[in-house]
Amino acid sequence: MNKPLLAAGALLLVGIGTAGAVYVASSGSEEEVVQQVLTATATTSASGSPSPTASTSPSPTISASPGPTPSAAPVPEDWATYSVPEAGLSLRYPPAWYALNDGGIHSWNPATWNKPYIPPESVSIDVIYGSSDYAEPRPGEATDFSTGADAGWEITYMKNPTVEDGLTRVHQIALERGEFTLFIIASFSQTSPDEETFSQIVHSLRFAD
């Protein structure tokens, strides 16, 4: 496995997992590598849903290709709200989905799934917010992205489900707001990834300011 590019005394987002993003820290020696997770605590208006925290389960990408997010349809009124008070942001998601303590928003009930990876034909979405100083730089293959109010970049990593824990695609969006960067990452295990719903969730993004 190739070593990630490191910056002495800094953090770089270098990997994407099925439930979070991996930050790698170095004290200056490539042999002293510590993986850290930038967590994003969030609350949801869905009844009985506790506050989720992003976690990590890294998997390497096998190929990357840009894939623009489709135009979003209006968000239905019955969608629940996922909020990150520390960042002053919120997202909407389908009422049949779940936002639980294992981190992120899921199209299935994590309480009924005891395996380490997402179930077949499912979607998991992670919301990670932190200092741009520690964030992954824009990949060369990324394309411009905008919600209308916020701009950044996006990239789609195509996966081979037979060797990538059932994943078929990972779609990463980064939105830059001053000194901070917001990552919204969708991990798909679907034969036909539901990019339309992901687009609706992303475009429902609102900041308190």
The number of E-state strands comes to 15
CATH class: Alpha Beta
Gyration radius from CA atoms, angstroms? 16 Å
Shape: globular
Q: Report strand order across the widest sheet.
A: 8-9-10-14-13-12-11
Mean pLDDT: 73
Give a quick account of the main beta sheet: strands, pairing sense, barrel closure: 7 strands, antiparallel
Query: What ranges have pLDDT less than 50 throughout 5 or more consecutive residues?
Result: 1-63
User: Roughly how many Å apart are the termini?
Assistant: 42 Å
Q: How does CATH name the architecture?
A: 3-Layer(aba) Sandwich
Structural class: mainly beta
How much of the sequence is in beta strands?
A: 35-45%
Q: What is the element string, with H for helices and E for strands?
A: EEEEEEEEEEEEEEHE
Q: Approximately how much helix is present in the residues? A: under 10%
* Total helical segments: 1
**CATH fold name, please?**
Protein Transport Mog1p, Chain A
